[in-house]
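Objective 1b. Sequence-to-structure analysis of Histone deacetylase.
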Amino acid sequence: MLKVAWSEYYAHPLPLGHRFPMEKYELLPEQLLYEGTLTRENFFEPTLVDERWFANTHDADYLRRLYALELSRQEVRAIGFPQSVALVERERLIASGSIQAAVYALDHGIGMNIAGGTHHAFSNRGEGFCLLNDLAITANYLLGKQLATRVLIVDLDVHQGNGTAEIFRDNRDVFTLSIHGEKNFPHRKEKSHLDVGVPDGIDDVAYGGILAGTLPRVLGEFEPDFLIYQSGVDVLATDQLGRLALTQAGVRERDRFVLTLARKNGIPVMCCMGGGYSRQIKDIVEGHAQVYRLAQELYF
């Protein structure tokens, strides 16, 4: 059975003006239940993991100031959310959900998180709606618990996973692959183990060709025993921030390619959602929903 981390806390309301990025965390599980892709048995409520797993990835002083709501105005501005205890707890819960979905994937091939993909959080600061990097925390958990030896992070959000790249810059046990909009945020890119910048306006065919020419090669050379997949849908042509031209069908084929390749090679996958900023919320929800349909089709 597919297991998906979700909590009502994921959609914890923020002050007016910050609600839009949170809507999908309520609507996506409702859509999956409505259409019958998932039942309530597929969802599990994540529980907070031990604090050491956050401290194993993030700088101690940053965590102390984050928890005490003592970030500077400049740091808060870079994150894009106001400081609050509720927001910090939400991010800790999301990272815990990604860890628990990954552990489930070890036995069942795939585990998923309705939230996550917070790839702009650096070891010592937050950025771009990201406070804690659940991708990095999960990878470090798997390595620290000796549940994996080589973790591949496949980041297909339209924005480069700059925080993840910084955290694992000198780590040979984690490979960071980021295929992103070359001219999009962040304007100052970090160096992933492999960065592939794509041009504005790229379509389904060209994007699919780049992915097909990149991911199999990385799998062959790095030989991971676990894959973390950031499946952002801000690559859609409808996205207000993405500037690419992928259709819903193109996103579905992107996700099918990644999951099929992982399954064929016997590599467990933890899939988290990443970004999505289309003007109509239905486009965001549909973009995310289809990866759950694929997980059911390919694994169960």
